[in-house]
Write a structure and sequence with these properties.
- The chain is of the alpha/beta class.
- It is 47% helix and 11% strand.
- 26% of the residues are buried.
């Protein structure tokens, strides 16, 4: 189905590029239309073949991560290079305008199609459709940890049927039914509709048992998934290097230092500068609305903690009444936050204009100036208050190793709906596994989180 979608996209793009080249007068450079009709048939077939050879249809990478997008982009680059080299060697007079239009439109269209497919599939999974029945093996504690993650991340599409352990249990501490012993996996696979088995720590006493289990499952169409003891490490930092039969996994160093260097800073300067130009009229309109409502100040300054514990004045559009800080103490008993951050879903201090701008995160637009100044970054951990930092444990302090962000994993993963432990875990994951592609992915996901108002109050 994905190949059919790609062929349709490529064919439409080829037609559009042809129409743009030969149908618009300002593209006319003397080339002729004859000899290009074959491209309608050759381009989709060849492009699809190159994508397949580059692994763009590998099922293991079609659900999560950036590998799918990278392989589509890489395969398209190879195909473009092959056409260019082929036309040069054969002296074929291919229209340069057609060539540029084909890939300038085609590559983004393919990536957008992949994004739409993945988004649709995630929505279907979250709704309980097209689930993959799985069996989880291991110690009871590790089984519950995996089950908790899979139940929280419903978009992954895994439906836990039950568990198998090496202990005599009827159910795990979290209430997951135990269907048998680890040695019964093959019988359970044969007798039930299980598509995957997840092996966690404690599944086998040694590696030889796992090898024999793989032999026994060889004849069954079953996915075998192993959950290593490593957690919160991105695939980009894992480099498998089997040596003498040992599946060694080399782990690259955390990326906190890379996330603070000139490349990310240059991206922040350019991005914040352009966004400030776009946000200017919006901020002006909101300023007028605030003045009309209560005639109070438009902007609100608050001390936040930045990289390496350095404090700075964080700018926001005022969304609360003027004496909001003074009234905070009397509302402490109604705190609905996560133990560290104060939150109320129906905070009486929020103004009418404030409700609207908070819903769409307009109140945070002035922080683009903080990004421009270097106090913050476009993407990073949430900027914390000094009183919050005083309560940090060792893991939470790791958040301060990079500049705080205007957006981050915390925002695209639930915002105010997250517990404190989940917020810290996401921020630390970002610090340890920073990459340019992850920043771009978060920025794209931020638009959906803001427009959908998920977790905003």
């Amino acid at each position: 189905m994905l190949a059919v979608v790609d062929v349709t996209i490529i064919t439409l793009v080829a037609l559009a590029a042809h129409a743009g080249r030969f149908g618009l007068s300002f593209f006319d450079d003397g080339a002729t239309v004859e000899g290009t009709v074959w491209l309608y048939y050759a381009i989709p077939a060849l492009w699809l073949t190159v994508l397949a050879l580059c692994g763009a249809y590998s099922l293991n990478h079609l659900q999560t991560g950036m590998i799918e997008y990278q392989r589509v982009a890489l395969g398209s680059a190879f195909f473009a290079s092959a056409i260019g080299i082929g036309c040069f060697l054969t002296k074929y007079d291919l229209s340069r305008s057609f060539f540029i239009l084909l890939f300038a439109i085609g590559v983004p269209a393919l990536l957008l199609g992949r994004f739409a497919r993945r988004h649709l599939l995630n929505r279907l999974h979250s709704a309980g459709l097209f689930q993959t029945p799985v069996l989880v093996a291991g110690s009871a504690r590790h089984i519950d940890e995996i089950a908790q993650v899979l139940r929280r991340e419903k978009w992954l599409g895994y439906q836990i049927v039950g568990a198998v352990t090496r202990s005599e249990l009827d159910e795990t501490p979290a209430g997951l039914p135990v269907l048998g012993h680890v040695d019964d996996v093959v019988d359970l696979v044969r007798d039930t509709q299980i598509d995957a088995v997840i092996f966690a720590e404690g599944s086998f006493p040694d590696s030889q048992h796992f090898k024999r289990m793989a032999w026994e499952l060889e004849e069954h169409e079953i996915q075998m998934v192993v959950v290593p003891a490593l957690t919160d490490i991105s695939s980009e930092r894992l480099n498998p290097r089997p040596v003498a039969g040992l599946p060694l996994v080399h782990v690259e160093r955390p990326q906190a230092m890379q996330a603070s260097r000139w490349g990310k800073r240059a991206f922040d300067l350019i991005g914040s500068g352009l966004l400030l130009l776009v946000a200017g009229p919006i901020i002006a309109a909101v300023a007028i609305a605030i003045k009309l409502e209560d005639r109070g100040p438009v902007f609100f300054k608050q001390v936040r903690v930045g990289r390496r514990g350095k404090e700075f004045e964080c700018l926001k559009i005022r969304s609360m009444v003027v004496d909001a800080e003074a009234r905070k103490a009397e509302l402490a008993a109604h705190d609905e936050g996560n133990g560290i951050m104060f939150k109320m879903a129906r905070d009486p201090r929020i103004t009418r204009v404030g409700h609207f701008i908070r819903r769409f995160s307009i109140d945070e637009l002035p922080q683009l100036w903080n990004v421009w100044r270097g106090d913050m970054s476009l993407v990073g951990p949430r900027p914390a208050l000094p009183v919050e930092v005083e309560q940090y444990d060792r893991d939470a302090v790791r958040r301060l190793d990079v500049r705080p962000g205007l957006t981050g994993l915390w925002q695209v993963s639930g915002r105010s709906n997250l517990t404190w432990d989940e917020t810290v875990r996401l921020d630390v994951y970002y610090v340890d596994n920073w990459s340019v592609m992850q920043d771009l992915s978060i920025l794209m996901r931020t638009a959906g989180a803001v427009l959908g108002s998920r977790g905003a109050y």
